Amino acid sequence: MAEEERTQVEILEENNLIDMTKYITYVSAPQAGGIATFAGTTRDTFEGKSVVELRYEAYVPMAIRCMKSMCSSARSSWNLHSIAVAHRLGSVPVGETSVFIAVSSVHRADALDACKFLIDELKATVPIWKKEVYANGEVWKENSEFVERRLELGKDGICSGRKVEVKAGDRKTCCGSKVKVDEEAMADLSTTRN
């Protein structure tokens, strides 16, 4: 099965719930000894404020491209069978899921490490914007991962076709993987933009 056939990336329009079973079923396979998942849900408070809902907007064509790119990066760093990534747009009330990732691999470590990489990379690079709606107001929020990436690169942080790799020696645990931006690819990218 080709890599594209084992990767499912979806952005769901408003009022479409994420069917986690669908994505877990998609990544399931007899040769997969591990399936790692992540579900991002709307919590009821943030810094003492009562949250009513989150609202998401995206530049969908670029978001899909960025999500596919991060999946390719994960595949080049870990031995993965299948990947599914889904993100909702529109209103996501408290307790509902806004983003879901499922990854399968022969061994659990690869699935766990790749799953963490994928959610971190999604939050740092994919052009999906979040508004927090409180009982007494609302505010657009930047993901901390996006801000950190922007500061690290001195750029806008959005997916730009750069090569992101995780070196095998840097994979200590699921929470200890290191993301390294290929500086040569960044230099090439900056000269093509000017």
UniProtKB/TrEMBL annotation:
This is Molybdopterin synthase catalytic subunit. It comes from Acer negundo. HAMAP family: MOC2B (MF_03052). Its main location: cytoplasm. Pathway: Cofactor biosynthesis; molybdopterin biosynthesis. One of its GO terms (molecular function) is molybdopterin synthase activity. Belongs to the MoaE family. MOCS2B subfamily. Keywords: Cytoplasm, Molybdenum cofactor biosynthesis, Transferase. It catalyses: 2 [molybdopterin-synthase sulfur-carrier protein]-C-terminal-Gly-aminoethanethioate + cyclic pyranopterin phosphate + H2O = molybdopterin + 2 [molybdopterin-synthase sulfur-carrier protein]-C-terminal Gly-Gly + 2 H(+). Catalytic subunit of the molybdopterin synthase complex, a complex that catalyzes the conversion of precursor Z into molybdopterin. Acts by mediating the incorporation of 2 sulfur atoms from thiocarboxylated MOCS2A into precursor Z to generate a dithiolene group. It is an enzyme of class 2 (transferase). It comes from the Eukaryota.
